[in-house]
Amino acid sequence: MSTDSLPDFLSGLNAAYLEELYAEYANSDGPNADWAAWFSALKGDASEADHRAIREQLRRKAQAPLHHSATGGAAFEKQAAALRLINAYRFRGHQAADLDPLKLEPRPPVTELDPGHHGLVAADMDTVLHTGSLVAPESLPLSEIMDLLQEVYTGRIGSEYMHITDTEQKRWIQQRLEGTRVRPGLDASGKRHLLKRLVAAEGIERYLHRRYTGQKRFSLEGSETLIPALDELIQRAGSGETREIVIGMAHRGRLNVLVNVLGKPPRILFDEFEDKGTDTNVLGDVKYHLGYSADIDTPGGAVHVVLAFNPSHLEAVDPVVEGSVCARQKRRGDATGRQVLPVLIHGDAALSGQGVVMETLNMSQARGYRTGGTVHLVVNNQIGFTMSNPVDARSSVYCTEVAKMVQAPIFHVNGDDPEAVIFVTRLALDFRTRFARDVVVDVVSYRRHGHNEADEPAVTQPIMYRKIRQMPTVMELYTRKLVSEGVATPDAVEEYKERYRVSLEDQGVVAENFVDDVSNEFSVDWSPYWGTDWTTHAKTAVGKRQLRPLAEKLNQVPKGFELHPRVKRILDDRKKMAAGAMAADWGFAETMAYATLLVEGHGVRLTGQDSGRGTFFHRHAVLHNQKNGDTHVPLRHLGSSQADFTVIDSLLSEEAALGFEYGYATAEPTTLVVWEAQFGDFANGAQVMVDQFITSGQEKWNRLCHLVMMLPHGYEGAGPEHSSARLERYLQLSAGHNIQVCVPTTPAQMFHLLRRQVVRPFRRPLVIMSPKSLLRFKPSMSSLDQLARGRFYNAIGETADLDPERVRRIVLCSGKVFYDLDAERAARGLEDVALVRIEQLYPFPKKAVLRAMAPFINATRVVWCQEEPRNQGAWYQSQHHLRGILRPGQTLGVSSRPLSASPASGYYRVHVAMQKSLVWNALGIKQGLSVVPRADGELKQA
């Protein structure tokens, strides 16, 4: 068939639709038989390569002016109009769907859904037309096509999926929506079970409201269908391959989920309300931030369900859940993601308002972060805190628009229709299982009380809450429905309520299908890591007989693999380092630390921006073939029994990327998990994770974590944002030995520090102020013996050949500034100044520092020297430790940059002058200038 003879209905608005049908035909996932035959005739004997040309011909023909033939033209136009109408409902039907239980705002009419817009009139309703790709009989009267479209696309479910470019996914969704007419197919027993879950969801809220009047609980009332939705999700997932589910959610409805889904005994919840049974070993957290885990029986066996701990930062838990799921999938060898399912429960305002949501979505299909897709449930209260106008909450009609960036299907559903909620829950889970991609269920509901139970919401939303107070609950609405259907009786419903109330009074588990004492070969025993101390000794040295063969393997590349000349020189140097012919640099030492851990059975996961190569061109854990772009990762080729090494150049994200690694580390205690900031201050973008999870998680939730944060730090004149990793922040957050903050000054120190983090049973986060300019600085390099025989030294005493009795001044310092001090001291021939490096600033190693200072019995002046401004760095947070190590007669001073709101100067000349001044002042050189920058960038003497 020539395109010149194409029928007249190929015109106007049906062009996009016909192109879509042809794409399905070309991908062998074609439309119905009539269309397939039509396209086959159009193609004729053309080869597969001609698909593009045919699409272009279709497009040109469809855009050409319409010329009706004498006969059949009107019929063709009616057919084309019907196809356009079908397409319009698929694209825009959700805009006319009955989604809002409150019905506060009338939805504007969608003209494309009116048959008249397409030239179809009342007289056409009995006309039998081809249904195209509609999942229906090949031909139907237009009236029946309209009935099907309205039932599927403008009922109480609004489906958005036509933005997806993958034809298979769209056809699958259409089959499930149109083929079932969005009916869940619940029998009488299923409906009664659903009603019982609603009774429980409402029952716990009303019970708590009466028993603890006015206390905050962040009620789920108005959105009770979340409970049967979660119940259905767990049961359906467990019927398949899923054996673990990790849930992240904010505080709205959390207590309800804990009791009715996870089986937290009410007596524990009541004790929390009454402040009984407090664990004095931790400070704890409010009850609606706490996590929990339980085993739930399903048709396929027990499923371990975890509700992640979450602070008030709402969506901050999203990447933490994904990281935890990733670790669990890794442990199970779950490459498809079907055994461990992530579920994120969002609030509407937070979903659209918080950037970490976008960051987490952006990771969903990225290498190293994939978890096989996430089921997102939105508890859409149509209100954010006390704000009810969506215009103030977001710039889009729906709160879910951000999910379209990963082409996730979005199913909006009226929360007052429990059966519709069950239908889309099943649909969402099945989509995730089939395609391993994210999917969103937006349960549009409302909030019966204020932001918390002490609020009076009518102050700011008088119209909304006037309506809400007149609304029957979803349980009452569904009861009426089942009574009218003869599925339930009023007496039976009252019995359900009474039975649930009694079970709450008994204070035992009220969740259905809760099971106890389930053995799980994939669970992690954290007991070896409790009760440990940071002073516990760890053997981190590795003999040369082990180091040299490993180094040899790390320097091997596949035959024909062409390295970049600069990288080749680095590997050639590393061969010399392994032989002891050259001092070991930082890249060699760090890589050797990973290699030794891997062959000892400890996995290593290293992520960050540019981590494969290393921001400062020092690591080269990933080698790139200059001929064809292939990559080689030597750390994966150490031996058949080695553990897994993962290195990922992360997306340009800090908060979500760091949160992911925190979640991973809390689920996997035997793997070294390292997140590296490209520059140390980049961690500023992840401060919520540092404050709310990493540094405080143990004290709030009793959660151990051994995540390593590697933060490049050091003043080299690179300006404010590339100098400081904000050491002061981590020291300010240090208490109760919650984290470790270290500033290693040699490659050997880095080698032993990284190994110590896993070899020693002490499981606390480690913050490393890692070097930049020292990476290839020869005075900082180490010998192979220091890797083979040494350990990590919390403090390093004087290394120069000084007479201890002549020393009058001791300069304490950390990091790169030691080498500036040492060089200036040598240049001036100072023999009365000793330098002591404190390599671990927290927990403060008092004994080690005292040992390093002990030989200098005549020293009366102790000076802390830091590169940072006086109000930053370690001085303010560590000076009480420093005063605690002074002997009688000793005084303590400080040498630093002047007080400043900015970490460093952006002018190199100012940087040099300040650096010289603080070094001279620390050494007691009188000629030192204390300098401050003027507005014009010049210097003036203070």
Can you tell me about this structure?
The protein has 31 helices and 27 strands. With 942 residues, it is an alpha/beta fold. The chain has a nine-stranded mixed sheet. The radius of gyration is 33 Å and the shape is globular.
Number of strands: 27
What portion of residues belong to β-strands? 5-15%
What is the SS-derived class? alpha/beta
Distance between the termini: 90 Å
The radius of gyration is 33 Å
Helix content: 25-40%
Number of helices: 31
Instruction: Give the low-pLDDT segments.
Output: 1-5, 65-71, 928-942
What is the overall shape? globular
Biggest β-sheet: strands ordered side by side in the sheet = 3-9-10-8-7-4-6-5-11
| Overall residue-averaged pLDDT value | 90
Report the major sheet: 9 strands, mixed
